[in-house]
Specification:
- The complex is a heterodimer of chains A (160) and B (479).
- By secondary structure, chain A is α+β, with helices and mostly antiparallel strands.
- Chain A is built from four helices and seven strands, in the order βααββββαββα.
- In chain A, the strands form two sheets. A four-stranded antiparallel beta sheet of chain A has the order 1-2-3-4. Chain A has a three-stranded antiparallel beta sheet with strand order 5-6-7.
- In chain A, helix 1 packs antiparallel against helix 2.
- With 479 residues, chain B is an alpha+beta fold.
- Chain B folds into four domains: 149 residues, PH-domain like (Roll), CATH 2.30.29; 76 residues, no CATH class; 176 residues, no CATH class; 47 residues, no CATH class.
- Chain B is 43% helix and 27% strand.
- Chain B has 14 helices and 20 strands.
- Chain B has a seven-stranded antiparallel beta sheet with strand order 7-6-5-11-10-9-8.
- In chain B, helix 1 runs antiparallel to helix 2.
- Chain B is globular, with a radius of gyration of 27 Å.
- About 2% of the residues of chain B have low confidence.
- The chains are: A alpha+beta (160), B alpha+beta (479).
- Strand 4 of chain A pairs antiparallel with strand 18 of chain B, so a sheet runs across the interface.
- Chain A: This is Membrane protein.
- Chain A: It comes from Geobacillus genomosp. 3.
- Chain A: InterPro entries: YdbS-like_PH.
C-alpha cells in the first residue's frame, strides 16, 4: 500500500510537540524527583536511583528529541470531495478513510501553544468517532473546515 | 387534544424499588462499618435518611412527570427542582421497546423505552415507566403514521384490520435450554458474585478466612474445599442458566412492514422494535461449543442506545439458530444483506505470524513454570505447539468478502465473529501496518459503524486487498 499520498501538516508541529513533550517530561520529572527524594530518605540502594534517572532521561529524549519530527514526517492528510483520507503513526502506520457523507460536523481547535505558533487543528466528527488533524496553518484550517462542511452537505444530499 | 397525562402510580414502586436495590449493599456496609462493637439506633440514621429521601423523591418525581402526545410530537415534562420540557417529533423516534416487568404486570401496565435521534447527547431517551398497554399501542400507531407522513408514501389502507404477521423465527423450549447451557453468561455471574463479595469487605474477616483456608488446605480437608469451590461454581452456572431461560423464553421475531419486532421474556416480557433502515450491520457469532453442533447466533448493530438492555447498539435477533437457516432469515428480515458471499482467505505468508502471536504471551509463563517446578514444569512447553495450533486455526478462519454494496469481515476462534456492513453505513475504514507487517506486505483492516466503538477487524490481510477495499469505499458513491 502506498503510504505517501496527501499533504503534510505544518512543520511547526514539531516545535509544538517538542514543547508539549518537554512540559510533560517536566511534570513527570517532578514526580520522579519526589520518588527519588523519598528513596534518599529511606536509604534505598543507589542503583535504583540510577535506574529511575535513566528511565526519565530516556523518556525525555523520546518525547522531546526523537518522536516529534518522526510524527510530523508521517502525518499526511488529503481532503477530497468524496472522502477524507488521514494517515499517521510512527511504529504502526494507520490510514483512515472517512466518507464525506458520514461527516456530521467539523471543529477548528486551538490551544494556547498552537495559537502562539499561529496553528490550529481540525476535528472531524462522524456519528461513530472523532478524527483530528493536528497543527495546520490557521488560514488552512479555516479553509478546510469550510470546505468539509460544504462537501459534507453536498455528499449528504446525494446519499440515500 | 394534548391533555397532560400522568404515569400509573406503580411507576413509583418500580422506580423506588430500582433505586433501593442499588443502594442496599452500600447501606449494609455503612451500617456494618458504623457498628464495630454493638448496634445502636444511631447507626441507622444515615441509611434511614437515604431511604426516606429516595422514597420522597420517587413520589415527587412521579407527581412532576407528565407526558402527552398528538399526531406530531411527544411532549414530556419532568424534574423535581429543575423543570425539563422535552418535545420529540414522532417521526424522529427510531426505536421503541415495550417491557412488562414484574411490577408493571401487577398493575397491568407496560414500560415503554423510546429512542430518538441524537442519542449521543444523552437526552434523546425517554422512559415511560408505566402506561397502559392500550396507550402504548396508540403511541406506536401514531409514530408509524407520523413516519409514513414524513415519507409521503401512500400506503394502501390495509392497515385497519392488521393482525400480527406470523413469526419468522421462534425458539423452542429445548433451544432456549441449549442457549442457556452454552452461553458465556456463567462467567458474568461469577464476576458479579466477586464484585458483591468485595463490597462486603468491611465486615467479612477475610484475613481470618484465608488463615482458615490455609490450615484447612494443609489438613486433610482439601477435597472438602475443592468440592466447595466446585459447588459454588456450579451454583453460579445454574443461576446463569435460569437467568438466560427467563430472558429468552417465548422468543419470537416478526417483521411488520419495515420494522423488525422482537418479543421475548418470561417474567419480564419485552418487545423491541427496530426499523430496518436503522440497522447498521449484522453480526454472526459462533462460539466454539455451539459451532460443534452447527449453531450460531445473529445480532444486529443498530444506531441507538441499549434498547435490549445490553450493550448500546446491540440487539439479539436470533440467540440460537442452525447455521443453514441464517441465510434465509437474513434475506427475509434484511434483504439488502447477502450472507452467502464467499470469503477470501488470508495470504499464506500471514500464517506464521498467526502461529507466533499466541506464543508471544505463552513463552514467558512456560519458561517460568519450567524453572520453578524444575522436573515436571517442562511439561508447560507442551503448551507451545498447542498455542501455535490455535493460531493456525485462527488463520484459517479469518477472512473477508467484498461485494458491490457490502463488506464482510470474519475473525476469531473461540468466539468466531462475522460482521456484515453495507457500504453506505461505513463511518470510517482504517488500514494499519506495523513495521513487521510492512515487511511481509500485510495490513490490519478495521471498519467502524455508527454506535460508538462498534467495529470489525481482521489482522494480516494482503496489502493489495486492503487497497481494493479502500478503493471500494472511495470515489463516487452509487448504490
Amino acid at each position: 500500500m502506498r503510504y505517501d499520498h496527501g499533504k503534510p501538516i505544518s512543520i511547526k508541529a514539531v516545535t509544538v510537540w517538542r514543547l508539549t513533550g518537554a512540559l510533560g517530561t517536566l511534570a513527570s520529572g517532578v514526580v520522579v524527583g519526589g520518588v527519588m527524594w523519598l528513596l534518599l530518605r529511606f536509604h534505598a540502594p543507589p542503583w535504583l536511583w540510577a535506574v529511575l534517572a535513566g528511565v526519565w532521561v530516556v523518556e525525555a529524549i523520546v518525547w522531546v528529541v526523537w518522536l516529534p519530527p518522526l510524527r510530523q514526517k508521517r502525518w499526511r492528510y488529503d481532503i477530497r470531495e468524496e472522502e477524507i483520507d488521514i494517515q499517521r503513526g510512527v511504529w504502526s502506520t494507520r490510514r483512515t478513510l472517512i466518507p464525506m457523507a458520514r461527516v456530521q460536523y467539523v471543529d477548528v481547535r486551538q490551544g494556547p501553544l498552537l495559537k502562539r505558533y499561529k496553528l490550529a487543528s481540525i476535528a472531524v466528527f462522524t456519528a461513530a468517532a472523532a478524527h483530528e488533524i493536528p497543527a495546520l496553518r490557521m488560514d488552512e484550517a479555516e479553509r478546510l473546515c469550510r470546505l468539509i462542511a460544504e462537501w459534507a452537505k453536498v455528499a449528504d444530499s446525494d446519499d440515500v | 387534544m394534548m391533555s397532560k397525562r400522568r404515569l400509573h402510580p406503580v411507576a413509583i414502586l418500580s422506580g423506588v424499588g430500582k433505586e433501593l436495590k442499588n443502594m442496599i449493599v452500600p447501606l449494609l456496609v455503612i451500617i456494618a462499618a458504623g457498628s464495630r462493637n454493638r448496634f445502636s439506633w444511631r447507626d441507622f440514621i444515615v441509611p434511614l435518611a437515604a431511604v426516606v429521601y429516595t422514597v420522597v423523591m420517587g413520589v415527587l418525581s412521579w407527581i412532576r412527570f407528565t407526558y402527552a402526545w398528538d399526531e406530531d410530537r411527544l411532549l414530556v415534562e419532568e424534574g423535581v427542582f429543575v423543570r425539563k420540557r422535552r418535545s420529540i417529533p414522532l417521526e424522529r423516534i427510531h426505536g421503541m421497546s415495550v417491557t412488562e416487568g414484574v411490577w408493571q404486570r401487577m398493575a397491568g401496565v407496560v414500560q415503554v423505552h423510546i429512542e430518538a435521534a441524537g442519542h449521543v447527547l444523552g437526552e434523546a431517551e425517554v422512559m415511560l415507566r408505566a402506561i397502559s398497554r392500550e396507550e402504548a399501542r396508540q403511541l406506536q400507531r401514531c409514530v408509524e403514521q407520523a413516519k409514513r407522513k414524513a415519507e409521503t408514501i401512500d400506503h394502501p389502507a390495509s392497515n385497519a384490520n392488521r393482525c400480527p404477521p406470523p413469526a419468522l423465527f421462534t425458539l423452542s423450549m429445548k433451544e432456549v435450554w441449549i442457549v442457556s447451557l452454552t452461553s458465556g453468561g456463567t462467567l458474568g455471574v461469577v464476576v458479579a458474585l466477586g464484585a458483591f463479595l468485595s463490597q462486603l469487605v468491611d465486615f467479612i474477616p477475610y484475613e481470618a478466612l484465608v488463615r482458615d483456608i490455609q490450615s484447612t488446605w494443609n489438613g486433610h480437608s482439601r477435597w472438602f474445599l475443592g468440592g466447595f469451590v466446585f459447588v459454588v461454581l456450579f451454583a453460579a452456572y445454574g443461576v446463569a442458566i435460569v437467568q438466560n431461560m427467563v430472558r429468552y423464553a417465548s422468543f419470537a421475531v416478526r417483521k411488520q412492514e419495515d420494522t423488525i419486532v422482537i418479543t421475548r421474556g418470561w417474567l419480564e416480557r419485552k418487545s423491541v422494535s427496530i426499523p430496518v433502515a436503522r440497522v447498521q450491520g449484522v453480526v454472526i457469532h459462533e462460539n466454539w461449543l455451539r459451532r460443534l453442533f452447527g449453531y450460531a447466533s445473529v445480532s444486529l448493530i443498530h444506531a441507538g442506545g441499549g434498547l435490549d438492555g445490553g450493550e448500546a447498539g446491540d440487539v439479539v435477533l436470533c440467540p440460537l439458530i442452525k447455521k443453514n437457516r441464517v441465510a434465509s432469515i437474513m434475506q427475509t428480515c434484511l434483504s439488502e444483506y447477502d450472507p452467502t458471499v464467499a470469503f477470501h482467505p488470508l495470504p499464506k505468508r500471514a500464517k506464521s505470524r498467526y502461529m507466533l502471536r499466541p506464543l508471544c504471551w505463552l513463552v514467558i509463563p512456560a519458561v517460568l513454570a519450567a524453572y520453578v517446578e524444575r522436573p515436571w514444569g517442562v511439561m508447560a512447553f507442551l503448551l507451545l505447539p498447542f498455542g501455535a495450533w490455535i493460531g493456525a486455526c485462527r488463520f484459517h478462519l479469518a477472512g473477508w468478502a467484498l461485494s458491490p454494496g457490502q463488506l464482510a469481515l470474519r475473525s476469531g476462534l473461540f468466539r468466531q465473529t462475522t460482521t456484515y456492513v453495507l457500504k453506505r453505513h461505513v463511518q470510517s475504514f482504517q488500514s494499519s501496518a506495523t513495521w513487521w507487517q510492512k515487511r511481509k506486505r500485510l495490513t490490519t483492516i478495521s471498519v467502524s459503524v455508527m454506535p460508538l466503538g462498534t467495529r470489525a477487524r481482521v489482522v494480516d490481510v494482503d496489502e493489495a486487498n486492503a487497497v481494493v477495499m479502500s478503493r471500494w469505499l472511495e470515489g463516487k458513491r452509487k448504490k
